[in-house]
Amino acid sequence: MIVKEFVALTKPRVNFLIMFTAIVGMLLAHSSSLNYELIFFASLGIGLAASAAAIINHVVDQKVDAIMDRTKSRPLVNGTIKPIHAIYFSLFLSCSSILMLYMFVNTLTALLTLLSIIIYSFIYSVYLKNLTSQNIVIGGIAGAMPPLLGWTSITNQVEPFPLILFLIIFLWTPPHFWALAVYKYEDYKKAAIPMLPVTHGRDFTRLHIFLYSILLFCITLFPYLLGFSGLIYLMGAIIFGLKFMIDAYILKLTKSNKRAIGLFKYSITYLAIIFALLLIDHYWYINF
Predict the structure, then answer these.
(1) Angstrom distances, CA of residue 61 to CA of 56, 73, 157, 185
(2) Short-list 62, 67, 30, CA closest to 189
(3) How far apart are alpha carbons 53 and 49 in whole angstroms?
(4) Whole-angstrom distance, CA of residue 219 vs CA of residue 194
(5) Does pTM surpass 0.90?
(6) Positive or negative CA dihedral for 133, 48, 271, 253?
(7) Could you give the CA distance from residue 89 to residue 7 in angstroms, rounded to a whole number?
(8) Domain extents for the chain?
(9) What's the gap between Cα 188 and its chain centre?
(10) Per residue in 62-114, pLDDT tens?
(11) Fewest CB atoms within 10 Å of the CB: 13, 171, 199, 274?
(12) What one-character DSSP code corresponds to residue 128?
């Protein structure tokens, strides 16, 4: 039971998407045979770091989580895990992650991973989340790092293609979380968290979800426009990106909570599809 609660602290569903984008970054960085040993240690190191950051977020948000219906059953809130034990667990995972990446991957990836932990765990969770309505935008820097970390773990250098992958997730993050914030408006208002719908209203947020969906659509075209991917990716990016924009526009018009949670759920599928398309396109052109 306790093991299950500790696993819950790591936000496994969120980490699955994080790890998927990181591994796609690794696979895209290969132009020939795969280095399975490097992929293994990089994946494990990045996964441990993501888990550590998620646990710190739980520790920082205890009081807020107890207020919100969506989070009031979390392990630290219901008392099944003590905060000090969660902190020790997070420190252990963080140290293990950075040490593993430094020893078995490369120094650049270890440093960028450490920066990601600091940004998400402390700058976002401790400071920004309760300070500004742009918390999700700025905090999105950490959430957008996985494909870049995946790339640097293989190449040991930062290049234009992974920076575009970074920007895709960075621009995806606000409409993704704001759709949930619109749906859970009363929860965030009750907890006095300055999410955009609370500080500027739901209509303002719906407008910005739509505007960000346009920016997101544009940046997803860049892998093709800059010659990093082919027509398979382009066609998929256009089809699924147009759906994202249309759904965001309908949400703006209808002001429907059902549409908000629908867009939130679709956004998760959408990001996975975009990265899957990049991977399929990459290996299609290598093999054919």
Answers:
(1) 9, 13, 35, 17
(2) 67
(3) 6
(4) 28
(5) yes
(6) negative
(7) 11
(8) 1-157, 159-288
(9) 20
(10) 888 788 777 777 888 887 888 898 899 999 999 999 999 999 999 999 999 99
(11) 13
(12) G
